[in-house]
Specification:
The complex is a heterodimer of chains A (721) and B (226).
Chain A (H helix, E strand, L loop, with lengths): L9 H11 L41 E8 L2 E9 L4 E9 L6 E12 L7 E7 L9 E11 L2 E10 L8 E3 L7 E3 L2 E3 L17 E11 L5 E7 L5 H5 L9 E8 L5 E7 L3 E10 L34 H17 L3 E7 L3 E7 L6 H15 L6 E8 L2 E2 L2 E5 H7 L4 H6 L2 E3 L15 E14 L6 E16 L2 E13 L19 H7 L3 E14 L2 E9 L4 E10 L6 E13 L7 E2 L2 E3 L6 E3 L3 E10 L4 E9 L5 E10 L5 E9 L3 H4 L5 E9 L1 H4 L6 E7 L15 H6 L3 H6 L7
Parallel strand pairs in A: 17-18
Antiparallel strand pairs in A: 1-2, 1-15, 2-3, 3-4, 4-5, 5-6, 6-7, 7-11, 8-11, 9-10, 11-12, 12-13, 13-14, 14-15, 16-17, 18-19, 18-20, 20-21, 22-23, 23-24, 24-25, 25-26, 26-27, 27-28, 28-29, 28-32, 30-31, 32-33, 33-34, 34-35, 35-36, 36-37
Helix pairs in contact in A: 3-4
Chain B lengths: L2 H16 L3 E2 L4 H14 L10 H9 L5 E6 L4 E11 L2 E5 L5 E5 L2 E6 L5 E5 L1 H8 L4 E10 L5 E12 L15 E9 L7 E7 L5 E7 L6 E8 L1
Antiparallel strand pairs in B: 2-3, 2-13, 3-4, 4-5, 5-6, 7-8, 8-9, 9-10, 10-11, 11-12, 12-13
Helix pairs in contact in B: 1-2
The chains are: A mainly beta (721), B alpha+beta (226).
Chain lengths: 721, 226
């Protein structure tokens, strides 16, 4: 049967030239209420100059702000977690100190704006951490006419420090700044919310007005209730006026460039870059179409003549393989019965599983004999059959031009255990390699905003069989300053992670990992992995994992057990003693050989995903890691995690416990065409020894969940794309 | 700064993180890096209209139905030929796999243009237009969002005689009755539009100007061969 491109003729080639003009990105329509677009302040929160407003960003907005005035710089990431709740992470150089301070904010919208009432937001600024910016506020903002907004609020803490109008109770142990360092006397080490301080102490009023005369500019004037007392005590800042003014220049995508005059003295500037996972990229992508369904002629389904003709079987299979490879996918096995075809599918291209299913199902209508009525597609990852997705050919024919949820209603997901066809001969072993530059970052640490290493990385992978994979990667440094971390922290735990700087300094060249991994399906709903070798930068050993996840379930359980050996600092083939010696105290401690976790995973179904890992960490401490992520159907993720173990806050050191925020950015959003690649960014608290896990590669859950029904359904609209 | 260059910038950041490498797998990052100068420096050349010669060659080189389209926002013209039929729906395509699905000349879906019309509920509109009947009907268009969710844009359309379809090419003068459909969004954020159609005596839409959503805008179509 002819493929999609089988009928090309002279003219369509020429027409294609005209066609290439069509794939350019067409700008989004200019929103009509752009004059009411919210503005970000110097803290990277919705606000005026330094003061917050009750404006709320559209759900899922991510705003990165770089702000500077005088000696103060603030870098803030703000994320609209739900339509009413937002959170910020901030990294600041505080004027007059040599330290970089990290802080977190939360804001919640109590009332949305209507024709009559203002929007009302309650906020906690710098509510964990060292507390230099610690403040709470209640603020209201009303849009009076297009582009004109008025704001008034009450502030506590820093926002209650100028001209207070009253006092509510007392605010225990405020942070003070002495001798060029921040002395967070209230909590000793920071990292814990100080609930007894919230909305206590002096309270002061603040407010302001903003006016956008057109789509491009926005003028802001505020009366600030922040006295900048710590900075002024250090002699780093003058303040002669509570009035601050600003001018914003707004870009088409919501980004903002601002200049300020603050404290009556200083000039400041700010850039805010705005991106939203829900709206970034080309809707639906601009990749080429899949092949159309080829409907069968009436009555042709009765012809079973082909079943006794090996040549016709062979040609059907060859035709399907060719169509699949044009889609960037591989049919590695096909079981053809009189009325049923089962495909073993490897999909390196499509991030949305539904699009892979849709394209291969349409290719099957064009290549398989007419009597084949049931299509069973089994995506395979690392030799593991992930799910069996079953369609009837008549449904595909009937519903091609209907809404995608109609075919979804006729699609069955079943466990693929024991159903997958054998892989064809001659495909394995497969060899993959790549050589390229790498950049390794360490950002936002207390001494230095950015540390970077660059170099060359070579990696290779041999898929000996579909489920037995030998892989490794070597790096050679070209330059950088990651090894200049001079800080030698004392640790009250075995030094499982605090020797990071030595590994960075001495590993050149370094074997990042070199491992043999075996994957299998030990039973129904079960998946397993055993990995042996040099597993990560600091440890080698054996890691074994098993995962239970029914194909239609949003819940999964896993267990992992690791036996580890500590690698030499040079990260070549050697191992070193598991006894660590503290460079400050000289204390000797042993890293235990065995660690591991049991994990529970749950997709809440409303875009949130939770995970709990309970077990023994690298340093031998017992505890749990809680993670919560907001996940988007296109693969974006924004989340946070925290680990609590029986290592005391004192033993853990600065930060009290391990916590971080993380982002996953799928490449497809930026390319405008399908891709399974993404970048993960983690902003972690200081790397300490408590709550540290082995960084073993290719844990099962992320591989498995993709092709299971709950995840596949999220982006099902791409089935006919 | 245009939306396009901002997207390119964001791409630059991401690509730098994923790091284009050479090898035999996962080349998207590398490809994006390689194409980056082109993306950033690309000048927008005005698309050339198809010449008479191109159109004549096209029509004579196949016996299948051929349509000519104009992408109004870009001013680009292109030809697609009938490659598959499923019930009343004919899929028209080209070798770069851009696709328009037509039901007797009415566009019901597109693929490969970015912001594609995924499918529509066009029965009511189709029957009024092809029978040249005045009346009101519902009409749904389905799209994907950048997040990969399906959104339905629901319209109420008033169909009546009138309007005229812009002429894409003088090669073939389209004659027939003119109908227009004035469609009002039922959802607040669905922009209103007006489609116009030229219909043959037997109810086939020979030419039309049809709205395909906020990303694409209007396509003008003209049948070169039914």
């Amino acid at each position: 049967m002819p493929g999609f491109q089988g009928r090309k003729s002279g003219f369509v080639r020429r027409a294609a030239l005209a066609g290439t003009f069509l794939s350019v990105l067409v700008g989004a329509s200019w929103a009509q209420d752009v004059r009411n677009q919210l503005s970000y302040n110097l803290f990277g929160s919705p606000g005026l100059v330094d003061m917050p407003t009750a404006e709320v960003a559209p759900d899922a907005t991510i705003a990165a702000t770089f702000a500077a005035f005088g000696e103060t710089t603030r870098t803030t990431l703000n994320f609209q977690i739900t339509p009413r709740l937002s959170g910020s992470f901030r990294y600041s150089a505080v004027a007059g100190t040599s330290l970089y301070d990290r802080s977190f904010d939360l804001r919640y919208q109590l009332l949305t704006e209507t024709d009559l009432r203002p929007s009302v937001v309650v906020g906690l600024q710098d509510f964990i951490g060292t507390g230099i910016y610690s403040a709470e506020y209640l603020v209201a903002t009303k849009t009076l006419r297009p582009g004109l907004k008025i704001t008034g609020g009450l502030g506590w803490g820093r926002l209650g420090s100028y001209n207070p109008i009253g006092t509510i109770g007392s605010r225990p142990g405020s942070a003070t700044v002495q001798g060029g360092s921040i002395d967070a006397e209230f909590s000793g080490r920071g990292g814990i919310p100080e609930i007894e301080r919230f909305f206590r102490g002096d309270v002061a009023a603040f407010g302001g007005i903003s006016y956008a005369p057109n789509d491009r500019f926005n003028i802001k004037l505020e009366y600030s209730s922040d006295d900048y007392a710590p900075e002024r005590r250090l002699g780093a800042t003058e303040k002669t006026s509570p009035w601050n003014v600003a001018l914003d220049y707004r870009m088409r995508n919501g980004s903002q460039l601002s200049v300020y005059h603050v404290l009556g003295e200083e000039i400041g500037a700010q850039f805010t870059f705005v991106i939203n996972p829900k709206t970034v990229g080309i809707p639906g992508g601009n990749e080429p179409s899949g092949v159309p369904v080829s409907p069968r002629a009436p009555g042709s389904a009765a012809d079973l003549g082909w079943t006794t003709d090996p040549a016709r079987k062979q040609s059907a299979k060859a035709s399907l393989s060719e169509l699949a490879s044009k889609e960037g996918m591989f049919v590695e096995g096909l079981k053809l019965e009189a009325n049923r075809a089962t495909v073993r599918l490897v999909n390196p291209r499509f991030g949305a599983p539904s699009q892979a299913f849709g394209r291969i199902a349409r290719a099957m209508t064009r290549s398989l004999p007419a009597s084949v009525e049931v299509f069973e597609i089994i995506p395979v990852v690392n030799g593991m059959a992930m799910s069996a997705v079953v369609f009837t050919r008549s449904d595909l024919e009937r519903l091609e031009h209907e809404a995608a949820n109609e075919i979804l209603a006729r699609t069955t997901f079943v466990d693929a255990y024991g159903r997958v066809p054998q892989v064809d001969k001659g495909i394995y072993p497969k060899f993959n390699w790549s050589i390229g530059p790498y950049v390794q970052f360490s950002v936002f640490d207390p001494q230095n905003p950015v540390r970077v290493d660059t170099g060359l990385r070579a990696s290779a992978e041999v898929e000996i069989t579909p489920s037995l994979v030998l892989s490794g990667s070597v790096t050679k440094k070209a330059g950088g300053n990651l090894d200049e971390v001079k800080r030698q922290d004392t640790s009250n735990l075995p030094r499982v992670r605090t020797d990071q700087a030595r590994y960075s300094a001495e590993g050149d060249p370094a074997i990042e990992y070199l491992q043999l991994a075996h994957y299998s399906r030990p039973g129904k709903n079960l998946y397993s992995r055993v990995t042996l070798g040099y597993l990560e930068q600091m440890y080698g050993g054996v890691s074994a994992e098993v995962l239970w996840k029914p194909v239609t379930s949003r819940f999964a359980l896993g267990a992992e057990l690791n036996y580890v050996r500590r690698r030499e600092f040079d990260q070549l083939f050697g191992f070193q003693s598991m006894t660590t010696i503290d460079p400050v105290s000289g204390a000797q401690r042993d890293i235990p050989d065995v660690n591991g976790h049991v994990s529970a995973y749950y997709a809440f179904g409303n875009g949130f995903h939770g995970q709990v890992d309970v077990g023994r960490y690298l340093a031998g401490d017992y505890g749990a890691t809680l993670s919560l992520d907001r996940e988007f159907a296109n693969g974006w993720r924004v989340g946070a995690y925290a680990t609590f173990t029986d290592a005391s806050f004192e033993d853990f050191g600065e930060g009290s416990f391990d916590k971080g925020i993380r982002f996953t950015l799928p490449l497809a959003s930026f390319l405008g065409k399908p891709s399974r690649s993404s970048n993960d960014l983690v902003i972690q608290s200081l790397s300490r020894d408590g709550g540290a896990r082995l960084n073993v590669r290719d844990r099962l859950y992320e591989q498995v969940r993709d092709y299971h029904k709950p995840d596949a359904v999220n982006s099902w609209g791409r089935f006919w794309r | 700064m245009t939306r396009r260059s901002i997207t390119s910038l964001a791409l630059a950041l991401t690509a730098a993180l994923s790091l284009g490498a050479c090898g035999n797998v996962n080349q998207e990052g590398a490809e994006a890096l390689r194409n980056l100068p082109k993306t950033l420096l690309a000048k927008k050349e005005p698309p050339k209209p198809l010449t008479l010669q191109e159109i004549a060659t096209a029509v004579s080189s196949t016996t299948a139905s051929v349509f000519m389209f104009e992408y109004e926002n870009l001013g680009a013209q292109f030809l697609l030929q009938d490659i598959e039929q499923n019930g009343p729906y004919h899929t028209y395509g080209n070798p770069t796999r851009q696709v328009v699905v037509l039901r007797d000349g009415m566009i019901t879906a597109t693929r490969g243009f970015g912001g594609d019309l995924m499918s529509s509920e066009e029965d009511g509109l189709f029957s009024l237009v092809r029978s040249r009947t005045t009346g009101r009907t519902s009409y749904d268009q389905r799209f994907l969002t950048p997040e990969n969710l399906t959104i339905v844009r629901r319209y109420s359309c008033y169909v009546s005689p009138g309007g005229s379809v812009p002429v894409v090419s003088d090669v073939l003068q389209v004659t027939g009755s003119s109908m227009e459909a004035v469609c009002t969004g039922v959802n607040k954020d669905s922009p209103d539009f007006t489609n116009t159609y030229t219909i043959s005596g037997d109810g086939y839409i020979l030419g039309a100007r049809q709205w395909l959503g906020p990303t694409i805008g209007y396509f003008v179509s003209q049948a070169l061969r039914r």
